[in-house]
Amino acid sequence: MKMQENGWESLRSGITLDQIQKAAKMSGYPLQTEVATLLNSMGFDVQDEWSYLDQNSAQPRTIDIRANIQLRNLPSEESRIRPHLTLIIECKKSDMPYVFFRNNPRIALEFPFIFGLSNKWVQVETDDDRSTWKFSVSEVLGMDDHSFVTNALCSSIFSKCVRRGKEVELSGSEAYSSTVFPLVSAVQHFERMCTPPKTAFWFDARLTICLAVLDAPMISIDPTAGEGEASPVPWVRVLRNEPSDKPRILAEQGKVWAIDFVHKDYLGDYLKNHAIPYAEMFAEKACYHDQVLGSMQGFVKGLGAGRWDVIKNEVEPLSILIGPSSRIPVGSLANLNLRAKMMIKEMNLNSSRRKRSR
Fold it and tell me: The whole model's pTM is what?
């Protein structure tokens, strides 16, 4: 006699467990779980299916993973900056290859993004010119020429192979709509959420990287090599130009978004040998220059003579602020000594500025 199945055990519409398992395997959800597990093991706080508001439609959507790790946790009296590394991740699985056409862009990239400060630009004064200059945070910290930023294989044109009968074609629209568009929308929302209040004194500086993790063949094509030399690659930085939404200098060039496409089998190496070492250097320099980043103002000697190379080594704060007294603990000798050192440094800076103004 056949046993009666429980209602929760029965499958309807002719669907089998094997079909469900196959659909789940191809969906990308197992890949998302694999990536989240790796990030958890590396100390990241991982949020699956992170919600964001799409900037175009104002509708709530989700990205596969938002992962964050705080890189330093210094006492508030020692640093105005709390540095983080944040990853915004979309996972994709496919039997069909992704194809990337190499190029060497001659543009200044905002990569990785740095969110959470009061401005994107540090205003710098000097002693031999009354002009002021604006530099990006990466330039001020000397991070813009790091190998992680400059040595990646780049591509402004990429596609995904799709089948058309017996033939294989390239589809750029599918690759863009399923990967680039949601990542750009998610990071735009994250940037808005990281905006500090105007009264902020301490800041969470979030070094942010957009990642597309692929469980699919990744093929690079060099258009300059005859008919196009094709080779498998584990990591490509995709550059996507979007129109600027604000009038500004060179607004007609739009905004370039950089997204790292990384194969799942290379993700561990990418993080351990590239992204995290860069983030650790960022954390060290951000905490060292916390007064500059806290005020987004700096001073460099001899800048009027065109000594641009000294910006990352010689930038100093215009003033030293120690914060609201009610928020600064002063009960220990160490804290008192720290405050005294700050006050002495501020007096020296004020003295040097008075001499320059004579």
Answer: 0.82
